[in-house]
Amino acid sequence: MEIIYGRNRKEQLEPVRAKVTGKIPAWLQGTLLRNGPGMHTVGESRYNHWFDGLALLHSFTIRDGESAHECAACAAAKDPKLTSFSYLTHTCPRFHGKLPDQHHGSVEKTSSNLRDQLHQEKSTKTLETLEKVDYRKYVAVNLATSHPHYDEAGNVLNMGTSIVEKGKTKYVIFKIPATVPEGKKKGKSSWKHTEVFCSIPSRSLLSPSYYHSFGVTENYVIFLEQPFRLDILKMATAYIRGMNWASCLAFHREEKTYIHIVDQRTRQPVQTKLYTDPMVVFHHVNAYEEDGCIVFDVIAYEDNSLYQLFYLANLNRDFQENTKLTSVPTLRRFAVPLHVDKVMASKEWWGLHPPSHFLVGLELPRVNYTHNGKRYRYVFAAGVQWSPVPTKIIKYDILTKSSLKWTETDCWPAEPLFVPVPGAKDEDDGVILSAIVSTDPQKLPFLLILDAKSFTELARASIDVDMHMDLHGLFIPDMDSEAKKQATSEEQRDRASDCRGAPPT
Ligand SMILES: [Fe+2]
């Protein structure tokens, strides 16, 4: 796996035209922006953990049935002061103004040394860094999740951990408005209008929970305070001890996972207090409200073995033999009652029965984001089993409990991203985009485009570059609406007449 995980990749700022086989849907016009660790040495220093690698952003521009690829490092990779403890990298959209052609991508670079919260505004057209933002200037958090939620207007909801006040370690939910609010001075950054939405005290002052994402419904926020915890004292001294961030995390399997629900209307935690079995969750899938309950789906592990396996030393050995997860990521569903006796609930936490297990062996989940916080049916994810390295792409139907998959020999897919067709009627009307790395020297890396409904391959755009394995991304559509509308109707007709499905698994 050295070929996939261990090597540094280079920036490639001139677009490289892809060779397209198949047919890219005419309506699919825009930029796929993706991010992942791509540089693992700085000078003589080498990172030990894949997640510590420096962000390398790359993009596929798709226009008129063709595609071009670019790749750019984050500024942090060029600034040694910012490199020592860098961590997972993600992208999320930010909307400047309401005009679609002003969309910029943002790169969330979550630092682990309690020193930097670097957030870079990137041009999606050139990958040029436009602005660097330090979260801490606007909200008192030391760490923030890599998966903020956002609404159609571009308002961002995120949460982070604050340890700035001694003895008051807490989790802070905060909101960044899309634009400068009415009545405020024009020309100022909307970051300055970031507001604290709600704070939740940590159950442990010196060892708050690690969390990578959280869930939202129309009216609530779901936060899991899990027994996978950060040791603040270890983190504070990690740099001088030459230790990495992962070594400051510990899973306490004897403890519970506490479920916090915050009412977005009152900005207060609800009275209902629940806990469940110990688990490790990186990714919430989705959540919604139904019949007096909050239903939320997560990818859960029974331990933290995933972290151990992403040490480069483990990945670069004979990984098939040596990188075995001791718990497989599982799609689990929880249904939390909102209305229980307040007196009881305020006295103690209520244990929640074991949740439903839907499907075993998937990670990096995505949904049709127009269904975020709402009842939904489909999960798109990378397929893994006992190894943390994805080997397939999965579409899981929660309703029928059936799945479709895409896989190919010597191909290593990343997170599958769903892009809806303009005017989509069904939840799965659209395409799946995934950047595929190959270990076959005869096969170039490529952007895979699947029909999201049937999971058949529509096209692949192969590029003659040394592409890195990425983690997350987003698609920013061009807004030439007239051309798109016309193309959409043609595509829908094509699909109706040619809807071959991949076999269920
Ligand atoms: Fe993530």
TrEMBL record:
Q: Which residue windows does the record flag with biased composition (Basic and acidic residues)?
A: 482-498
* Cofactor annotation remark: Binds 1 Fe(2+) ion per subunit.
**InterPro entries referenced in this protein's UniProt entry, alphabetically:** Carotenoid_Oase (IPR004294)
Which cofactors does it use?
A: Fe(2+)
Ranges for region Disordered: 482-505
Molecular function GO labels: beta-carotene 15,15'-dioxygenase activity; carotenoid dioxygenase activity; metal ion binding
State the Gene Ontology BP annotations.
beta-carotene metabolic process; carotene catabolic process; retinal metabolic process
**One Pfam short name:** RPE65
> Where along the chain is Fe cation bound?
147, 212, 283, 472
Q: Does the keyword Metal-binding apply?
A: yes
Q: Which keywords does this chain's UniProt record carry?
A: Iron, Metal-binding
Concerning its family, UniProt says:
Belongs to the carotenoid oxygenase family.
What name is this protein filed under?
Beta-carotene oxygenase 1
| Gene from which the chain derives | BCO1
